Automatic annotation (TrEMBL):
Periplasmic binding protein domain: residues covered: 58-313
Pfam families in UniProt: Peripla_BP_4
One cellular component (GO) term of this entry: cell envelope
Protein name as catalogued: Sugar-binding domain protein
Lineage start: Bacteria, Bacillati, Bacillota, Clostridia, Lachnospirales
Keyword Lipid biosynthesis among record annotations: no
Signal in keyword set: yes
Places the protein is found: Cell envelope
Similarity comment: family membership: Belongs to the bacterial solute-binding protein 2 family.
Signal peptide residue numbers: 1-30
CDD domains: PBP1_ABC_sugar_binding-like
Annotated source species: [Clostridium] asparagiforme DSM 15981
Length: 336
């Protein structure tokens, strides 16, 4: 038991140092023709595994192996698992991005393979429930970092308050427009809790500004190319657009590309979610006003930690919120 507690302590340290966030669990682009895509955490951790401590095999199933945010979560998962020599983690995703049907198949395979715990970011918060129920029946703890599931017995969900940040970003957009203007929204994937909650936040923020007119709101599946296509359609349909709110930065980068192609990028304010170097460059260049940094590596590290605790008989909180930081020109340097 002392050896296991030492592992848990070292894991707690990693979870807090990946992004500087507080650990909460103790509250008890790949080619499209790869199928299924997967990565395997290093089998060479910093110290040799102690044979007296059980080795745990975890499976992490993402929404898409072509989504940069999910790839960053995989990096966090592998870093977390590498710290604890008695955790092996397989990171996999559907061949077809955001295919809940393929995610269900991957959960079923993880059950067949005897996984000790399953972690999944559901592509469809309702559609994934049958797979969660199968894991429940097999006695395998299942956690949902980042994206909630709307059913089944989930060990824990760990993520940000998507509604609140959507509200804050919507408010920032309206304030930048001084309370008057025509705006559009680029949504994520229908049925996905992350997208739904963020959109709801935006919409409620807009209600506070009678001078703001929502022209249109369309999904682009968290995808840069689809975000560009949706924005192209908006530009053709609406001669005046003052602001663009998006559910993630990949879609925003596509939208910016569409606007620049027709010389309309200076006409509108863009706000979004998530951070990478492209997004930070866009903020510094004035193409994006503000984004939300949701510390995805801390989310997955805490989820793995929660699964490890559960495997050793500890209780964990059913919901754990990771703080989200708003990023503007004033603090982009922190994230580089």
């Amino acid at each position: 038991m002392k050896k296991m507690l030492a592992c848990l302590l070292s894991f707690t340290i990693l979870a807090s140092t990946l992004t500087g966030c507080t650990v909460g669990a103790s509250n008890a682009t790949a080619a499209e023709n790869q199928a299924p895509a997967e990565t395997q955490a290093s089998n060479e951790p910093a110290q040799a595994a102690d044979p007296s401590v059980k080795t745990y095999n975890f499976v992490f199933i993402v929404k898409s192996m072509q989504f940069s945010f999910m790839l960053s979560m995989i990096d966090g998962a592998e870093a977390a698992a590498a710290l604890v020599p008695n955790i092996n983690i397989k990171c996999i995703g559907p061949e077809t991005p955001y295919s809940v049907e393929e995610q269900i198949q991957l959960v079923e395979q993880a059950i067949t393979d005897g996984a000790d715990a399953i972690l999944i970011t559901p592509a469809d918060s309702t559609g994934i429930v049958p797979a969660i129920e199968k894991a429940n029946a097999a006695g395998i703890p299942i956690a949902t970092p980042n994206t909630k599931a709307y059913g089944g017995d989930v060990l824990t969900w760990i993520g940000v308050d998507n509604y609140t940040v959507g509200y804050e970003l919507g408010t920032a957009l309206c304030e930048a427009l001084e309370g008057t203007g025509k705006v559009v929204l680029i949504e994520g994937t229908a049925g996905n809790s992350t997208s739904t909650e963020r959109v709801d936040g935006y919409l409620d923020a807009f209600k506070n500004y009678p001078g703001i007119e929502l022209l249109d709101s369309q999904p682009a599946d968290f995808n840069r190319e689809k975000g560009m296509t949706v924005m192209e359609n908006f530009l053709q349909r609406y001669p005046e657009i003052d602001g663009v709110g998006s559910i993630n930065k990949d879609m925003t980068m596509g939208a910016i590309e569409a606007c620049k192609a027709v010389g309309r990028d200076k006409e509108m304010v863009q706000v979004t979610f998530d951070v990478d170097n492209d997004c930070l460059d866009a903020i510094d260049a004035g193409d994006i006003l503000i984004t939300g940094a949701q510390e995805e590596k801390s989310q997955i590290a805490n989820a793995i930690y929660a699964c490890l605790l559960a495997c050793n008989g500890y209780k964990v909180a059913p919901e754990q919120y990771i703080p989200m930081t708003l990023v503007t020109k004033d603090n982009t340097n922190i994230y580089r």
